[in-house]
Amino acid sequence: MKEYVLGAAFAVLSTGAPAQTIGFSQIGSESGWRAAETTVTQQEAEKRGIDLRFSDAQQRQENQIAAIRSYVAQGVDAILLAPVVATGWDSVLEEAKEAEIPVVLLDRRVDSSEDLYLTAVGSDLVHEGEVAGQWLVDNKPEGECRVVELQGTTGSSPAIDRATGFRTGIEGSDDIEIVRSQTGDFTRSGGKEVMESFLQAEGGGDNICALYAHNDDMALGAIQAIKEAGIDPGDDILIVSIDAVPDIFLAIAEGDANATVELTPNMAGPAFDALDAYLTDGVAPTKFIQTESALYTQGDDPMAEYEARKDLGY
Amino acid sequence: MNSRVLPLYATIAIFLVAYLICYLQFPAMLSTRVIGNLLTDNAYLGLVGVGMTVVILSGGIDLSVGSVIAFAGVFIAVMLRDTGLHPLAVFALLLAVTSAFGAAMGGLIHGLAMPPFIVTLAGMFLARGASYMLTIESVPIDHAFYDVLRSYYRMPGGGRLTLIGVTMLLAVVVGIILAHRTRFGTAVFAIGGGAQTARLMGVAVGRTTVLIYAFSGFMAGLSGIVFSIYTGSGYPLATVGTELTAIATVVIGGTILTGGSGYVFGTLVGVLTMGLIQTYIVFDGSLSSWWTKIVIGVLLLLFILLQKGLLILGQRQRSKMT
């Protein structure tokens, strides 16, 4: 009887509580970052006591639409969506809206009208580049600094935005100059190959003061090329890149790389917080929640950062 | 009892048992919402499945349909964006193109006595390439008429019976009549039983083959229209591998892959079974969505074994009679 009363009391307490069941339609697991995002989302849900219903769309929009419809039919409290393409979401988002189920977009955006979703959580790619540029301004050695840049896949939006952001970051520092810029296709092998040619073109590397890579993988490839050329990466050539994957922290710990800007896989944390505020207090968030682009350097205990990330699925 | 009907009964029984299991675990599965979703989400698959059933009944295969659906979506999106044509005119144009495309493949298969596998594989690459020629990105469709096409009837319980879902059901009815009640259907079954025998029976094999693939092309085009309504856009990377899913639904629906025996209605049940598995996995929320593929694989194997078993059984009975 006592237990029954307690149970009833809990039942009363839990009404009006934040979201209990949340559906998450993920694009797939095409990259290490995406896999880490999934893992972190599940961890964040567990931390908050949320029953997360996960669905992997295997890169297909029709699977995502069907999953969202099923979530609506199931009567979940909210839906997280990482959309595979930007177009074609109107009717299914309308259906969710009609059922009064808030939808939060993760990482990518859609071209639907803003009132069809609660908010979008994502990183600002231009800002990431700015943070990297600012770091170089603050940490470059005295005098003129000739920078080489490893760009991402030509024409891709991260490549364009991270290039723009970096240039904004170094604006005003007249002694920093980007002398060479070429695509390494976001891959390790691409980064290594292009860096080799940079080294040859710049007097064996003597004329290079810093390397800016649009992602960590290219930086890791470049580090290898620099070592093979007999130069000390991290000292002779400063290295700053973006993403904060586990391996770059190993390089930072060993003094081979200097800094990385994090593209956090934790998009779900801010999303859950926004949903919580919305569902309990009715506070509507802004339409875009920008995640933090944190900077990590050798002073930030890189080994601990590596340990924290290595099991996320990168 | 006719042993040929057995696979169909097995399909229906599996679907009902599966639905019962789903319902016991998640009572919300037996709502008009879920039923409406099953029809809407799988409408494009059902349409292309009807075409595929007719092809497989004739002993053929059509690997081009997935690409044709993507082509259709891109074609519609680009035409609506760049020309002032009304969607209905674009649809008519598109269906003419895809039917002609299918007919051309049928013509090659018959005329050059080529295996359908090879010819439609070429068709698959052609159609996919053509969609990339039109655009490389996803193009939104923003036309007032599309809102009309998205209309639905609200069933009691909040479920939506959409226009595209109804289109699929109608197509199944037409497919049933076409395959089981017309002279064309009889010719399809005859060719499936063996082209040589069919010819001796007086079936116009060439004409029928062209018609079969034209029909499949037409259904793929129609499926593309439905898919464009479903996603509201055209995307050249859409529906990769859908031809294989369609073939799987046909086999799970009780049609024999070697042709000559099967039911269009079974394909509908096969499509719904596939949708049901997907819904169950989303409802559960902790299973990897790749389980859909595993269950489909197991079901396929089951049906192939069942078919083989029936074949052996039939042969034994026949040898007893003589």
Automatic annotation (TrEMBL), chain A:
Keywords: Signal, Sugar transport, Transport. It comes from the Bacteria. GO terms for molecular function: carbohydrate binding. Pfam families: Peripla_BP_4 (PF13407). The keyword Transport applies. InterPro entries: Peripla_BP_I, SBP_2_dom, YtfQ_transport. This is Simple sugar transport system substrate-binding protein. It comes from Sagittula marina.
From TrEMBL, chain B:
It is a multi-pass membrane protein. NCBIfam families: PRK11618.1. Its main location: membrane. This is Simple sugar transport system permease protein. It comes from the Bacteria. The chain crosses the membrane at residues 6-26, 38-57, 63-81, 88-111, 117-136, 157-178, 210-231, 237-257, 264-283, 289-313. It comes from Sagittula marina. GO terms for molecular function: transmembrane transporter activity.
